[in-house]
Amino acid sequence: MIVIFGALAGTAWGGYLAKKRGGNRLDIAQYAASSAIAFGLLALFASIVLARVL
Q1: In Å, how far are 22, 43, 47 from 26, measured between CA atoms?
Q2: Which pLDDT does position 49 carry in this prediction?
Q3: String of b and e for 17-51 (b: at least 16 CB within 10 Å)?
Q4: pLDDT by residue (tens digit) across 9-43?
Q5: What pLDDT is attached to residue 21?
Q6: What is the DSSP string of 1-49?
Q7: Total domain count for the chain?
Q8: Which of these, 20, 17, 15, 8, lies nearest to 32 by C-alpha position?
Q9: Half-sphere exposure of 46 (CA within 13 A, CB side)
């Protein structure tokens, strides 16, 4: 669940960032995809740490 939320948040943040910088459709898609992957990986590590601690 945390991973899905992280990926969705990364998609929204990457799309917003590319749009703010004046990117076209493909730029927005690339930023959104790369941010989704990065945030999803961070959320995955966070969920592993939470599972080990709790």
Answers
A1: 11, 25, 31
A2: 96
A3: ebeeeeeeeeebeebbeebbeebbebbeeeeeeee
A4: 999 999 999 999 999 999 999 999 999 999 999 99
A5: 96
A6: -HHHHHHHHHHHHHHHHHHHTT--HHHHHHHHHHHHHHHHHHHHHHHHH
A7: 1
A8: 15
A9: 13
Quote the CA–CA distance of 39 and 32 in Å, as a whole number: 10
Do you know the residue count of the chain?
54
Task: State the burial class of residue 54 (Cβ atoms within 10 Å of its Cβ: 0-12, 13-18, 19+).
Answer: exposed
Residue 15 structural domain: 1-53
Residue that has been written with the tokens 């969705």 in this structure: 8
